[in-house]
Amino acid sequence: MPQPMTLERILKDPNLRALIDAANQHLAAQGYTDHGPRHARFVSRFASEILRRLDYDEREVGLAAIAGYVHDIGNSISRVNHGVSGACMLFPLLLQMDMPMADALAVVTAVGNHDEGIGVITSPITASLVIADKTDASRSRVRNGTPEPGDIHDRVNFAIERSRLSVDKDRRVIFHELEMDSSSSIMEYLTIYMSRIAMCERAARFLSCSFGLTINGHSING
Ligand SMILES: [Fe+2]
Ligand SMILES: [Fe+2]
């Protein structure tokens, strides 16, 4: 009888860690910001936290944590359609680890739909994964702590001194509050994050919430 999978087992699995590292290296070579274990743990933590704060059951909270940790492994093959490729790679691995079929399917649906290019939000696990992933923007994602001046993603991330995600269950609002220094601008943030903000709004609506983005005290979409 398959046992419920725990995040602890996922974190200890050498195959999944190797895939996260390979994905991160493939993106590093192309100049992308950090997609390694730090990003994986951040998304895992906040995807599960969003559902916990909204009183989803422990099964969905746990599956969101797992989906968050493994969501970017498809980048080990290609950035293009990495959600779908990652889901296809992940599915047999989860079943080999004796994850129940329904749980494995819930995880691969979320992973396969987290990318703003093609993702469709059809479950709370997907919705929370999307919000946690798209709001991970901060100085710590700039590799080696040194931004490439000509790279807008580096400039924007490096300018983000603080990023805070919070859930107001009573008002049904998921807040993303950013503080940026003057080395980039709100306009530059919006230039590269607009499609991700729109996907967060869709994800929040799926959870019967709104998504409120604030940058340097200015409400951007409220
Ligand atoms: Fe991704
Ligand atoms: Fe990601």
Summarize the structure.
The chain has 222 residues and is an alpha+beta fold. The chain has helices spanning 7-12, 14-28, 37-53, 58-70, 82-96, 101-112, 124-134, 152-159, 186-206; strands at residues 160-168, 173-180, 210-215, 218-219.
Question: How would you sum up this structure, described in words?
Answer:
The chain is an alpha+beta fold. The chain has one domain (7-219): Orthogonal Bundle (Hypothetical protein af1432). The chain has 9 helices and 4 strands, in the order H-H-H-H-H-H-H-H-E-E-H-E-E. The protein has helices at residues 7-12, 14-28, 37-53, 58-70, 82-96, 101-112, 124-134, 152-159, 186-206; strands at residues 160-168, 173-180, 210-215, 218-219. The chain has a 4-stranded mixed beta sheet with strand order 1-2-3-4. Helix 4 packs across helix 6 (101-112), helix 4 (58-70) packs across helix 7 and helix 7 runs antiparallel to helix 9. The N and C termini lie far apart (48 Å). The structure holds fe (ii) ion (2 copies). One fe (ii) ion (FE2) binds next to loops.
